[in-house]
Specification:
Elements: H1 14-50
């Protein structure tokens, strides 16, 4: 028979989980800022095209 032993699943340590979640929060914050900046630019362009006062 073939050697069918499987390696047990690796358990994430508390420090690794904290680092992963911190990075995810940082990335989410950056993405939010990018969405806000894009929306601001689009709104400014829309106002310019429609002839509204700046």
């Amino acid at each position: 028979m073939a050697d069918d032993r499987k390696e047990p699943a690796r358990v994430e340590t508390t420090l690794e989980k904290s680092a992963r979640l911190k990075a995810a929060r940082l990335e989410a914050g950056q993405q939010k800022d990018q969405r806000i900046e894009r929306a601001t630019r689009k709104a400014a362009a829309r106002r310019k095209v429609l002839g509204a006062k700046p």
